[in-house]
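#onboarding

Welcome to the new folks! Below is a worked example of what a typical request in this channel looks like: someone posts a single protein sequence, and someone else replies with the predicted structure as tokens. Don't worry about understanding the tokens yet, we'll cover that in week two.

Example request:
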Amino acid sequence: MGRTYTEKTIKLLFGTATHCAYPGCNSRLIFKDRELYTATAQIAHIRSEKENGPRYDADYPSDSINEFENLLLLCGEHHPPVDRHESLYPVEELLEWKERQSRQGERLVAGAELAAIERLLNQKAPITSDAILRGPVNALGQAERLQQASDRFDEQPLESAVLFDQVATKLEETPFVHHAAIIRSRQCAALESGESFREAAKIRIDLGWRDYFSGYVFAASQQIRRIEKYQDNLPEETLRAVNGLAYSAAYGYERAVSLEDLADSFDKMEGADQGALNAAMAFAEEAIAWRRLDLIRSRASTLSEMAGNSTADESGLTIRARILMCLADATDSWDELIRKARYTYPPSITSWIAARHARHLSLTGHPEQAMGRWQDAIDGAVSAQLNDSAADWLYGLRATRVQYWNMDGNIDDLHRLAQALRASGNGSVLPEPYPLAARSLSHLLDQKWPDALHCLHQHLRHSVVTASWSAERTVHERFGDLLVATEKWQEAPIHYIRSDASKKLKKLAQAWPDRALLLEPPSGQIPHWERIAACKFIASASRALPEDIARAWSEFTFMEISTKPSGHPQTSPWIPAFSAFSATADAASLESAGNFLDLTADWLHREPGTHSRTDKDLVNALVKIYASHETLRDRVIEMLCSAILLRNDASDRAVYEGQAILSENPQVVEQRLGESARDENLYAALALVISGCDVAPAIGIARKKLEQYVQPLNITPGVSEMRVGEEDAALLVTVLDESDRQAFVDSMIARVLEIQDLEANRASAIGAIAIVGPSLHAEGRNTAFDLLINFAQGPTESTASMAYGDDPFSRFKFSVGDFSLGALAIHAAGKLAHSREQYAEVQRVAVPLLSATSSSTCSWLARMLRDLPEGELTVDVDMLATHQSPWLRCVAAMAWARDPHRWPGLGERLCTDNDPGVRLVLAKELKGRADHESIIDVLRNDYRRDIQRALR
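Example response:
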């Protein structure tokens, strides 16, 4: 049978013997050297287990052969003769030896000692507890040492820690350095078990920093949590070191930890503290990644001193360079760093410094120098066989050329070269711990928000540190995506701005919730593309800006436009800044508004029919300045009239956006535009009609428009033609006599009923009826009313359409919008209604459409209800107040303000409505009212500045 000895047998043998059983021999049974146990004793059988073996006894129970009573412990010298010369060593004599050996003295056999003996005697190999360690540990001949370290853990933890240290040291001297971390963790546990807390904490801090720079922040936080269990037993300097590691690991992993917290933890450390250099590097690089250069500038001397104290080996030089690059970014001290780099650092780090300098130059408006530095970095990286870094920097060079509109040569050649470099082999100045871009995108798609946040933090820092500028911009865009998806609205814009994601900024502005936008104008120098993106966003989202921030933006953007644009038009923020000023002109100070009028005073004095990119925004700004600054109104009306004289899109906008202004200044309008109207300037004629002054100059063009639109339609099958101008013509026709107006309405009715025409054209015809119809005599008005009511209850669909690309995979899509002809007809019918019965009828027809979800339908129904004479509204206002459409809730707000006692409590609900348009209507209706102070106070404190102004 095989020789296997139970734990009980081994304990009895070695627990009752101290030396060899041979009489007079004092050879030890267990040898301990260099913390390892080695069993030197050999087990001899008094009776052999084999038939031909020494002293075989067939009557002896086979299951007792390997038991304590049949075994002796002999040294290597005396075991062979006992077995080879069995006749000289009979059973009886060996039993006497056994008896004497069992009286040599009792002792406790430690678990680790027992395990070592058992492995030797039973010929078992040491078992490495972790499969990942087995190969390296065996290859280095450390299997037995590691096994004994594990065996002694419970009974002799400090001895166990010494053995773990020896194994880890061996591994750290080889490429298996990462495997050593596993052993170091076990060493820490052994030290903690033996209450050697200071040494344990020291090792855990080193492990934590190793985990941090390897990208495994969670593992670093686990090291910190273990230290916290015995932190009361640690000295102050160790606690500072733990604190520095803890905040470095938490930043980006825990949202509650800010960059200021990280800076404070660094400030509390002393230069001699363990990990102080790592903390300095982590803080400096995070500050650069998040563009908090102020935090670095205020600590520049400390960081510089710490960098200078780093070691001169490769690791120390790398840390020094990384800290100094951050200082150069913050203090613009690149010249000195580059001058010293050539004879201080190896080529790989010199290339790295060149790339970081190129990034800095790109961000600070020095494209020519930046492109040169990118090329230096790329050449150095290729020479050092750092192909991944060279590829990243090629994309940085490409991005610089694109952003500064330097399109000489084929820009895509840089992309092809970068791909070729990646294919020819890898190598980076700072390898990624894992594929950061792929993992962050995966977390985003899986909606694992905390993991996505953490991964993006790591990716941003790595991209900035390695000067992977193209990747840096991509990370910012994905940060924006994450923050939008998690509804962290205030944080999203800056990331889209830094990534120059203009389309996403536009979508963000459209989706902005009902809350204040707290984006301040940029302070200090930022790249032109970021200024462009920021201004475009503000132009789209300006209504959400509170008064003080809107004024700050108006000041910032005016400073931009007060300087003439220079360079390539694509790199100038001048046009976007002009749009942003226009959007915030209502908040501009009197001085800024006056200066703006001075700047643009002559812009509208040019040949009619000419166009300028600023025309639309200029008119918008004029309308807002007129409303905000009474002392500037005379200048504004003059400029609006100048815009109308241009006969272009600016004229159209001046007429319709400035209707209220024109109505308040009929004398100026007549004086400035009368002659132009006689010359058949459509917009001048419209302005005369709108302002209510003498319309005689507009008669000529009005008749021409009438003649144009009373002609029968000529529709060619298969040809879709979108017409415009019916509503302009209708406004002019109102100044003609009764028969002309009736003829115009009849022509428009025919167009409404023409199903071969586009819905957009038929909708324009309905709008024209709504303008002219109210001026008809009673009979014609009633006829048109009845026709519109009938049409609204069963509108006919057009057979012609200009919509294209309904398939989501269509590359080309076109649509002219959503037209609800039934709702448009109801709105027009409401305009024509002039009796109580007709007001009731139009509301009766509208009620079934109130369940519609189309914004267009609800908008036209709301306008009809809004325009009803006071006292004629019969639709349930409580129902309107709870409708999903804000248009209809606006009607409820207006109705309540006119008769608040009829719907008690409704005003309190509507003043906090989640749509600002509803609150704005309520504010306008309550302007100048002495009652409902509580509701007015709520509206007065609304973040929307248009709501606040409506009450002034």
